Amino acid sequence: MQAYDLVIRNGHTVTHKEKIKQDIGIKDGKIAALGEVLEEGVREIDAEGKLILPGGIDAHCHIEQKSSTGLMTADDFYSGSVSAAFGGTTTLIPFAAQHRGQSLREVVDDYMACAAPKSVIDFGFHLIISDASDAIIGQELPAMIEDGITSFKIYMTYDNLKLDDYEILNVLAAARREQAMVMVHAENHDVIRWITEKLLDQGHGEPKYHAIAHASIAEKEATHRAISLAELLDTPLLIVHVSSESALNEIRRAQERGLKIYGETCPQYLFLTIDDLDKDGMEGAKFCCSPPPRNKENQDIIWEGLIDGSFSVFSSDHAPYRFDDTGKLSAGPNPTFKKIANGVPGLEIRMPLLFSEGVQTGRMDIHRFVDVTTTIPAKKYGLYPRKGAIAVGSDADLAIWDTEKQVTITADALHDNMDYTPYEGMVSNGWPTTVISRGRIVVEDEELKVERGSGIYLKRDRSEFAKPLERRVPEMDPKTNFNAKLF
Ligand code: URP
Ligand code: ZN
Ligand code: ZN
Predict the structure, then answer these.
(1) Which of 27, 55, 97, 445 sits CB 3.0–4.6 Å from 32 for a disulfide?
(2) Does ligand 1 lie within 6 Å of residue 289's CB atom?
(3) What is the CATH number of domain 56-382?
(4) Domain ranges for the chain
């Protein structure tokens, strides 16, 4: 009888800290051995000349999610998970989105019923909390956190989602008590609303004005305010989808002061610019997301933030709306930017494009690549070391990368359910060619090898990073005369 179910030989494993030429023995879905020459496996893969990375973790994606205005994303948990797997991702943490009036239990049950029979890779959920009433925050949320949904997103903008500062304080206090990780969409709602009204009054409805309305100062102000509220209550906070230099600087300043403030950025801020929104006719709608891509100079600064450690997490923010009347053009063929669904797809290209433009160009160290795409998200969201590691005892979630393979990105070649990609024609140098989840070969020879519904739900631990700093000892901060522990 063979010692292992699968042995991968002759490859170089690459983690967030080391690169080693070693074989991997896999048994019962776990990494059972790492070493020079292992015993035989039932199945063997020769990875000579290839890199073996931990399977990626996409910790920000919207799949089979109904938006706050009632639009359904183009991907369900089957097409979304297949697309992610083809891009080297083996764990998804999408959102279970509460609409006002819904109980959190009902929301999670609904998303679970959608995901479990369809997802081909493992998944957990973050909650989106749009109703911060006492019953939701005080009673329902703690129960959800106990059930393994240990992080949640709140919004400072969007009519049907936004929380005011008072509500945000209630949410942060609950997160502090329960040691949950809070993620925030930081844009100043009234600034966006005010500029939007003025632009539309002047007849400026084209897609490019979306980026003017979502001014970077709106992002900066909300980021500063969210950080201030988190500081008041001594609560860790993760600012999601950061697009601008000024918001990044707020995060850096907070980190320099020792606060537990983390940042996430996404492919659209590294590979797209404001010029993409200024394409002919409605083409620019394909690039409308919030916050929007900024100019080239800003793009370089976001790159620097990802490389120098200011950002902790690189996620897709996959929010797929087709370029038709089910998505971007649901309000008609020529909607104003206010009526264009916000979001761009990115599940499949997230890792390959960053690998190509970051690692292969020498701009980004490969260990940093593994960290931001995989290991830090695993740690931040309570999955490490089960996920995000190549270690004995970890789940055998692995992606074998062919660094020589060149792929031209086209909508047709991607596996999501979209009719366009904002990255059409870009060339990726390097691609994950074999993708393994819990020892199962999910993708090989450009084919899907597993059944729908073969991914499993991940009950997540509380994040180490969600622990409050407890720096205000013994009772009161002498500078502010405020003691967060009282609340
Ligand atoms: O434009 C975006 N990012 N849409 C998705 C929803 C969100 O706020 O992340
Ligand atoms: Zn958001
Ligand atoms: Zn999002």
Answers:
(1) 27
(2) yes
(3) 3.20.20.140
(4) 56-382
